[in-house]
Amino acid sequence: MSHKAGFVSIVGKPNAGKSTLMNSLVGEKMSIVTPKAQTTRHRILGIVNEESYQIIFSDTPGVIKPAYSLQESMMNFVQGSLIDADIILFVTDINEKYDEGDVIEKLRKTSSPVAVLVNKIDKSTEEHVKAKIDYWQETLKPKAIFAISALLTHNVQAVFQFVLDNLPEHAPYYAKDELTDKSERFFVSEIIREKVFKLYEKEIPYSTEVIITSFKEEERMIRISAEIIVERDSQKNIIIGKSGSMIKKVGTYARQDMEEFLQKKVFLELFVKVISDWRSKKNYLKSFGYDQ
Ligand code: GDP
Ligand code: K
Ligand code: MG
């Protein structure tokens, strides 16, 4: 029997709705979604398996001009995902302006089929949608254009069908019971990072990394210890909050999500550690997994 398999890259600017779309295509919460730009730092694979096909979606950080080493590494994840892709889903917020010539150049040059997904149409008018579709038709001449709402899963099924129709004949790349290339530890650290993005303001989320220092599965519960890394003492104080009030919130919300994700009781311990300028130090980036 024939089998289809391939890599589908979801690319676009920060906050276009890439992670929301990925979660909706995969049907699981794989990628953290927040209103803040640059929440997604790594490339995350979400795998959909059926008897006759395997689709490997990859969510990427948004396309930006790198200002520091962490961002450089984030952009390398994006480059990698354009090169490997069998299909490219280019997500654009209907209300965003496009001036990053280089992304459009790269999308024009790729030989893989590209679909433009004009997202967040729930926040727009029919006329505006039509104008945007014309604009993208002119600018990129993609294989297909869809007007979608990733949030309301409007037209997401049509995007899925586009993917299936363009998926190459290939044997499965991953075992058919795998859902992602990332470990439980990775998702657990992402859950904490999501809470940090949601609970703190300004530069705090961007100055933060989370490291799972221990993950021990026992019969009745999982014991997890994590370090929240920040760049300065002042940030450490903000993370902790008055008498520990803020870090307590992070811990409570993160633990609830972890228990749902892992389907087991979780005992979570959080520590805060200062590593000055970790975002600009290659050795730290490497040890945090940004080593592409
Ligand atoms: P990413 O940075 O491209 O991964 O974008 P996210 O998936 O993190 O989404 C950024 C923000 O846009 C979040 O607040 C989402 O809830 C919101 N969002 C995503 N898709 C839609 C949509 O179709 N409609 C609306 N109204 N909001 C959306
Ligand atoms: K985001
Ligand atoms: Mg994202």
Low-pLDDT regions:
none
Number of strands: 9
- Integer-rounded radius of gyration: 20 Å
Helix proportion of residues, in percent?
Answer: 25-40%
Shape: globular
CATH hierarchy, class of the largest domain: Alpha Beta
How far apart, in Å, are the first and last alpha carbons? 37 Å
Main location: cytoplasm
Keywords: Cell membrane, Cytoplasm, GTP-binding, Membrane, Nucleotide-binding, Ribosome biogenesis, RNA-binding, rRNA-binding
Function: An essential GTPase that binds both GDP and GTP, with rapid nucleotide exchange. Plays a role in 16S rRNA processing and 30S ribosomal subunit biogenesis and possibly also in cell cycle regulation and energy metabolism.
Region (G5): 148-150
Written overview of the protein:
The chain is of the alpha/beta class and 292 residues long. The protein has 2 domains: 4-166, P-loop containing nucleotide triphosphate hydrolases (Rossmann fold); 184-287, K homology (KH) domain (GMP Synthetase, Chain A, domain 3, 2-Layer Sandwich). It has 9 helices and 9 strands. The protein has helices spanning 18-26, 69-84, 101-109, 126-140, 156-166, 184-199, 233-240, 245-262, 282-287; strands at 4-12, 44-50, 53-59, 87-93, 114-119, 144-147, 209-217, 221-230, 265-274. It has a 6-stranded mixed sheet with strand order 2-3-1-4-5-6, sandwiched between helices. Helix 6 (184-199) runs antiparallel to helix 8 (245-262). The longest helix has 18 residues, at 245-262. The protein is globular and about 55 Å long. It starts with a strand and ends in a 5-residue tail after the last helix. The mean pLDDT is 87. Bound molecules: guanosine-5'-diphosphate, potassium ion and magnesium ion. Residues 15, 34, 36-37, 39 line the site of potassium ion (K).
